[in-house]
Specification:
The complex is a heterodimer.
Chain A lengths: L3 E4 L2 E4 L5 E7 L7 E6 L6 E5 L3 E2 L7 E6 L2 E6 L8 E7 L11 E5 L1
Parallel strand pairs in A: 2-10
Antiparallel strand pairs in A: 1-3, 3-8, 4-5, 4-9, 5-6, 7-8, 9-10
Chain B lengths: L2 E5 L2 E3 L5 E8 L8 E6 L5 E7 L8 E3 L7 E6 L4 E6 L8 E11 L2 E7 L3 E5 L2
Parallel strand pairs in B: 2-11
Antiparallel strand pairs in B: 1-3, 3-8, 4-5, 4-9, 5-6, 7-8, 9-10, 9-11
The chains are: A mainly beta, B mainly beta.
């Protein structure tokens, strides 16, 4: 199975900050990666697929980059509503494993 | 508007069984690859399994922890996805989500999710 490792596991930042979350795969997964946002008590929401393609309706302050085994999710200017846990998921092979999550706190 | 509504969760004793349903609307369910994902209390997301559409052979894949105990099926006439869970263990306690699979330019992702249903396995 492909292991997905996110860093950091916890992040505290201020409104307006640029925030970066990293996701590393235990082997190359090309660009078969998606990012999700999960707010407390809610279902996950798709933000980005194919490593960098923004899902329709997602604010442009979110962006994704990377390929192979290292990927990043960037929030260019953090907003209060971005309080959530963020997950990456690989689709290169089954099982479609998730990272362990990055919990983002607003200072 | 796509809607996925899970039901069937509840409290069950270890070794027991439960069947979850996911009723879909607002999409061509017959053409949708469907997935189950779970989340134990306070933990991250875990892929449970998926089922392809009949046109793709209706194949099913499972995560190792549930293989042989869980069965995913679908009834396209009812626009409903199922998860039959047998031989339940305490570690199966989680919120179970169904999600649709989207495809674009060869890439795959989960674009619509239900609200989840809580399964608690405890004596």
């Amino acid at each position: 199975d492909i292991q997905m490792t996110q860093s950091p596991s916890f992040l505290s930042a201020s409104v307006g900050d640029r925030v970066t979350i990293t996701c590393r795969a235990s082997q190359g997964i090309s660009s078969y990666l998606a990012w999700y946002q999960q707010k407390p008590g809610r279902a996950p929401k798709l933000l980005i697929y194919a490593a960098f393609t923004l899902q329709s309706g997602v604010p442009s302050r979110f962006s994704g980059s990377g390929s192979g085994a290292e990927f990043t999710l960037t929030i260019s200017s953090l907003q209060p509503e971005d309080l959530a846990t963020y997950y990456c998921q690989q689709f290169n092979s089954y099982p479609h494993t998730f990272g362990q999550g990055t919990k983002l706190e607003i200072k | 508007e796509v809607q996925l509504v899970e039901s069937g969760g509840g409290l069950v004793k270890p070794g027991g069984s439960l069947r979850l349903s996911c009723a879909a609307s607002g999409l061509a369910f017959i053409n949708a690859w469907m997935n189950w994902v779970r989340q134990a209390p306070g933990k991250g997301l875990e892929w449970v399994g998926h089922i392809k559409i009949r046109a793709d052979g209706g194949a099913v894949d499972y995560a190792a922890p549930v293989k042989g105990r869980f069965t995913i099926s679908r009834d396209d006439s009812k626009n409903t996805l199922y998860l039959q869970m047998d031989s339940l263990r305490t570690e199966d306690t989680a919120v179970y989500y169904c999600a649709t699979a989207g495809f674009k330019t060869g890439y795959y992702y989960y674009d619509f999710w239900g609200q989840g249903t809580l399964v608690t396995v405890s004596s």
